[in-house]
Design goal:
By secondary structure, chain A is mostly helical. Chain A has eleven helices and two strands, in the order H-H-H-H-E-E-H-H-H-H-H-H-H. The chains are: A mainly alpha (288), B mainly alpha (350).
C-alpha cells in the first residue's frame, strides 16, 4: 500500500516536472512555431539565478518564483530583439541560431560560476510514508506545476490576453485583425516563454543541483514533450507529460532510471512516427 | 544559372591534385597527430554536407552514426583481432541503422522539426544507454562496454591480413587522407549521377519530384544510409586515432560541432564544410590549451553570427562575390564597348 502510494507520488512528480520544464517551450512553439533550442540553457540560467540570489541572502522562494523568471525573461527579451526577430519564418535557421545561443550561455555561465556543481539545500524537509522517506519538496514542485498550468489555461481561455495569444497561434494576420502589432506580440510571447523557463529552472534548482551543461538534460525532455504534444499548447503538453511521466516512472521502478528514460525516448519515437502532427493533431483537436 | 549554383558542380582536378600533393607532403614538415584528427573531422563534416547540403535533410543526430562506427569497430576488433572485418563492420552497422531509421522517418512522411526531434532522440537513447553499460553484465563477446569510461585499448588498425603490423603515426595519417579523398570522390560521383540530380530536385521541390513519379522516400532513405555509412567510417577512424571510445561520441556537443562546420562552410558545397571543419577544429584545439575563454562560448557566437549574417555559409558567399566581381567586369567591358561604338557612329555620321 505504502509502495503504491510512493509510485503514484513519483509518477505525479515526474508529470509535474515534465509539464514545468516544457511550459516555456510549449508557449513559444505553440504560438510562434519557433523551436527555441536554447530552452534548456534558459532553464539552467534560471537555476543559477536562484542559487546566486539564495547565496546572497535572499529568501529562496522569492528567488525562484520572482527573480529567476525576471532574469531569464529579460534575457529572452534581449535575445528576441537581437537575434530571433530577424529569423521568423525560417524554422531551421532559428533552431541553429538558438542552439548557438545555448552554447554561448553555457560558455558564459562556465566563465562566471566555473565548471563545478553548485546546489542550494531544499527548503522543505522530507516526510515519511510508512517505511519510506519522501522528499517534501516534490510536493511543492507538483503544486507549482498545477498552479502554473491551471493559470495558463485560464488566461488563454478567458482573458483578453489569451484571446490575442490564441489569435497569434492562427497567424500574423489574425493578430493584425484584432488590432495589435504582431511584432510586439511575438516579442512579448518570447519573453513570457523565457520567463517560464526561468521559473522552471528556479523551482528545480534545489532538487537537481546545477552544472553549466545541465541544459542538455532538460532540452531533450522538453523537446519531445512539446513536439509530441502538437499544436494545442496546454492539452498537448499535459497529455504527453502524463504519458511520458507514467512510462518513465513505471519502467524506472521496474528496472533502472536509465531504462526508464530510454523507454520514454523510445515511446516518443513511436508516437511521432504514428502521429507526426503530435497527439493533439489526432485527439483533443479543439482544446487549448 | 550555372551548374554550380544548383550544386551539381564538377571536380576541379587540378585543385584536387594540388590538395592531394600538399596533404601528402605535410608529414615532411609537420607532425601528423593533429592533422590526422582534422582530416577525420573533415570526413565527418563531408558526410553531413552531402545529406544536408544536397538532399536538404537536416539531422540533429548525426553523431549517432559517428559513434556507432566507433563502437562497432572497438567491439568487433576485440572479438575478431584482425582489423579488416571490424573496419568494414564500422561502415556497415551505421549504414544499416541509418537505413532502418531513415526508412521509418521518410516513409512516414516526417520532415523538418519532427525529423530533427527523432534524430536527436535516437542519439540521446544511444548516449544514455552507453553511459549505463558499466559492469560485467554488459559485454558483447570479449568486449566490455564499460559505461561512462568507454572501451580502451582495443586492437587498432593493422595491415590487412597481418594483425601484427599495426598502422599508426604517419602511415595512419595516409590511411585517413586516402579515406577522405576517396569519400570526396564518391560524393562527387553520386552528385554527378542521375541519383544525385534527383536528390537535388527533392531539395528544391519535394512535391514536384513526387508528382514527376520519383519515389521520394526511397531516395531520401538511400542518401541517409550513404551519409550514415560515411559518418560511421569517420567514427571508426576517430576510434583508431583516439585509441579509446567513450559515450561522448554520442553527445549533443558532437552533433552541434558537425552542424556548425557544415553551416559555416556552406550548404550545397562539399569543400566548404571540410575546410570549416579543419579551421574550426584548429580553433577548438587552440582554445583547448587556454582556460580564459570557454570553447562553447566561441562556437556558439560563431554559429549565431553565421546564421544571422551569412546564412548560406562562407563558400557560397565567396562564390557569389566572385560572380558579382566577374559581372562588374563584364559590365565595364560592355560599357566600354558601347562607348567605342557610339564614338565610331558619331565619326561615321560626321
Amino acid at each position: 500500500m505504502d509502495y503504491a502510494a510512493i509510485v503514484v507520488l513519483e509518477i505525479l512528480y515526474m508529470i509535474a516536472f515534465l509539464a514545468l520544464i516544457s511550459a516555456g517551450l510549449a508557449i513559444v512553439f505553440g504560438m510562434m512555431r519557433v523551436i527555441n533550442l536554447a530552452h534548456g540553457e534558459f532553464v539552467m540560467v534560471g537555476g543559477y539565478a536562484t542559487i546566486a540570489a539564495a547565496k546572497a541572502g535572499i529568501n529562496v522562494y522569492f528567488a525562484m518564483l520572482v527573480i529567476s523568471p525576471i532574469v531569464v525573461g529579460v534575457i529572452g527579451l534581449v535575445v528576441e530583439r537581437l537575434i530571433v526577430r530577424f529569423l521568423y519564418g525560417r524554422m531551421i535557421d532559428i533552431m541553429l541560431a538558438t542552439w548557438g545561443l545555448g552554447l554561448l550561455l553555457t560558455g558564459i555561465i562556465t566563465l562566471i560560476f566555473g565548471n563545478t556543481p553548485v546546489s542550494v539545500p531544499t527548503p522543505i524537509p522530507g516526510y515519511r510514508v510508512g517505511h519510506y522517506q519522501m522528499g517534501g519538496y516534490n510536493l511543492f514542485v507538483i503544486a507549482v506545476a498545477a498552479v502554473l498550468i491551471g493559470s495558463m489555461w485560464f488566461a488563454l481561455r478567458y482573458t483578453r490576453v489569451g484571446l490575442v495569444a490564441r489569435g497569434a497561434m492562427q497567424g500574423r494576420e489574425v493578430v493584425s485583425a484584432l488590432g495589435y502589432n504582431p511584432s510586439t506580440i511575438y516579442m512579448l510571447t518570447f519573453t513570457v516563454g523565457a520567463a517560464l523557463s526561468g521559473l522552471a529552472g528556479g523551482v528545480m534548482a534545489p532538487l537537481t543541483g546545477l552544472l553549466p551543461s545541465i541544459g542538455g538534460a532538460y532540452i531533450a525532455k522538453a523537446f519531445i514533450t512539446v513536439i509530441t504534444g502538437g499544436a494545442a499548447v496546454i492539452a498537448g503538453t499535459l497529455t504527453t507529460a502524463a504519458v511520458f511521466g507514467t512510462v518513465d516512472q513505471i519502467v524506472s521502478f521496474a528496472s533502472t532510471p536509465v531504462l526508464g528514460e530510454i523507454a520514454m525516448l523510445a515511446l516518443a519515437l513511436v508516437l511521432l512516427r504514428l502521429m507526426p502532427q503530435g497527439v493533439t493533431g489526432k485527439f483533443f483537436r479543439n482544446s487549448t | 544559372m550555372t551548374g554550380a549554383a544548383f550544386g551539381i558542380g564538377r571536380i576541379r582536378w587540378n585543385w584536387l591534385v594540388a590538395a592531394a600533393i600538399l596533404l601528402a607532403a605535410l608529414p615532411l614538415v609537420y607532425e601528423t597527430y593533429t592533422p590526422t584528427l582534422l582530416a577525420i573531422w573533415a570526413l565527418f563534416a563531408l558526410s553531413l554536407a552531402l545529406m544536408w547540403g544536397y538532399a536538404g535533410i537536416l539531422s540533429f543526430g548525426h553523431a549517432a552514426y559517428f559513434g556507432l562506427g566507433a563502437y562497432a569497430y572497438a567491439i568487433a576488433s576485440f572479438n575478431v583481432g584482425e582489423s579488416t572485418v571490424p573496419f568494414l563492420l564500422a561502415i556497415i552497422v551505421p549504414a544499416i541503422v541509418a537505413a532502418i531509421i531513415g526508412a521509418m522517418m521518410f516513409y512516414g512522411r516526417i520532415s523538418d522539426v519532427y525529423l530533427g526531434v527523432m534524430t536527436l532522440v535516437v542519439t540521446l537513447i544511444l548516449n544514455r544507454f552507453m553511459n549505463a553499460t558499466a559492469g560485467d553484465a554488459y559485454r558483447i563477446g570479449n568486449a566490455r562496454l564499460g559505461g561512462f569510461n568507454g572501451i580502451p585499448a582495443f586492437p587498432t588498425l593493422n595491415v590487412p591480413g597481418d594483425p601484427n603490423m599495426q598502422v599508426y603515426g604517419t602511415a595512419y595519417y595516409f590511411v585517413v587522407i586516402v579515406c577522405l579523398i576517396g569519400a570526396y570522390l564518391i560524393c562527387r560521383w553520386i552528385l554527378a549521377s542521375g541519383f544525385g540530380r534527383v536528390l537535388i530536385g527533392i531539395r528544391e521541390n519535394e512535391l514536384r519530384m513526387e508528382l514527376l513519379g520519383y519515389n521520394v522516400p526511397a531516395y531520401k532513405t538511400a542518401i541517409f544510409t550513404v551519409s550514415g555509412a560515411m559518418a560511421g567510417l569517420s567514427g571508426c577512424l576517430f576510434a583508431n586515432w583516439a585509441e579509446i571510445v567513450t559515450p561522448t561520441v554520442f553527445s549533443l556537443g558532437q552533433t552541434a560541432e558537425v552542424l556548425i562546420w557544415v553551416i559555416v562552410g556552406g550548404l550545397g558545397t562539399l569543400v566548404g564544410p571540410m575546410i570549416a571543419a579543419v579551421v574550426l577544429g584548429m580553433l577548438k584545439l587552440a582554445l583547448g590549451t587556454q582556460t580564459l575563454i570557454d570553447n562553447s562560448l566561441i562556437l556558439g557566437a560563431i554559429l549565431i553570427l553565421v546564421v544571422l549574417l551569412i546564412p548560406r555559409g562562407f563558400a557560397p558567399t565567396f562564390a557569389a562575390w566572385r560572380r558579382r566581381l566577374a559581372q562588374v567586369q563584364v559590365h565595364r567591358r560592355q560599357a566600354r564597348g558601347t562607348r567605342r561604338r557610339r564614338v565610331a557612329l558619331q565619326e561615321a555620321s560626321q
